[in-house]
Amino acid sequence: MAILIKSEREVDLIRKSCKLLAKVHKELGQYIRPGISTKDVDTFGEKLIRDLGCIPNFKNYNGFPAAICVSVNEEVVHGIPHREHILQEGDIVSLDAGLIYKGYHSDAARTYPVGKVSDDLLKLIERTEQSFWEGIKHAKAGNHLFEISNAIDDYISQFGYGIVRELVGHGVGCQLHEDPQIPNFRQTRRGPKLQKNMTLAVEPMINLGRADVEWLDDDWTVVAEDGLPSAHYENTILITDSEPEVLTIE
Fold first, then answer.
1. Looking at residue 130, what is its pLDDT?
2. Which residues are within 8 A (CB) of 20 and not within 5 positions of it... i.e. 6 or more apart?
3. Is 250 exposed, middle or buried (CB count within 10 Å of its CB: 0-12, 13-18, 19+)?
4. Higher pLDDT, residue 1 or 185
5. 28: exposed, middle or buried (Cβ count in 10 Å: 0-12, 13-18, 19+)
6. Is the Cβ–Cβ distance between 166 and 183 less than 8 Å?
């Protein structure tokens, strides 16, 4: 495992990439409403990214056909946008997006309610986000990577949710996906020691029901096997000498 330690110049460019992505996510969140298609979301998101002078790093990544992953209800991640897939009142939708600014990558995800949703789904969204914040309390130079994983698991396990195991967080910055992998579930080993100027994408993916997932025939869309909804929350963070810097929030 070769974890990249970024130079100060690289950190500055990654930070700028992430701040631009935060703006994109803010506008995407305001755009979500019943009656629009998942393709509408993708088209709007790609325009936002390109209008900032950036490149959507998901588009054509290993053949993925869109700029924004739009995953609805039981779709965990990598949902392919379609004109026929219309958002309905009561749905939840996860938007995973990234961009390239001057060669440097950012990555973040959010889950939004579509109109009025059930209390169970609101709690799932809120707790998935909170698990990220619980995890990064341990994202400090000198700590070990899997302290993040264990903290996410400790927080989520009290609610009886399923923590997706087949998909994990990752390093990010110079490439979209870098070492290390960052599980969201408890590990028996400590993992590598965290160092200043590592940039990591921490991204809990939490199912309302069981943890088991499967891939649809499009070879991209990952769904909860039991058909129950799933939530996703992700930010790119920077390891510093003190508290981590969350780069993809305004």
1. 99
2. 52, 54, 99, 101, 106
3. exposed
4. 185
5. buried
6. no
Specify the residue for token string 């209008």: 51
- Position 229 scores a pLDDT of 98
Tell me which amino acid residue 27 is: E
∠ CA 97-101-107, rounded to 5° = 25
Q: Output DSSP code: residue 164.
A: P
Q: Write down the CATH number for the domain with range 8-246.
A: 3.90.230.10
Where exactly are the structural domains of the chain? 8-246
Per residue in 35-81, pLDDT tens?
A: 999 999 999 999 999 999 999 999 999 999 999 999 999 999 999 99
Percentages helix, strand, coil for the chain (3-state, rounded to 5) are: 30, 25, 45
Tokens of 102: 């001057």
Rounded to the nearest 10 degrees, the angle between the axes of helix 146-157 and helix 119-136 is 150
Contact between residue 203 and residue 109 where contact means Cβ atoms under 8 Å apart: yes
The model's pLDDT over 159-199, given as tens digits with 9 standing for 90+, comes to 999 999 999 999 999 999 999 999 999 999 999 999 999 99
Beta bridge partners of 56: 99
Instruction: Report the alpha-carbon distance of residue 45 to residue 60 in Å, rounded.
Output: 15
Q: How confident is the model at residue 219 (pLDDT cuts 50, 70, 90)?
A: very high
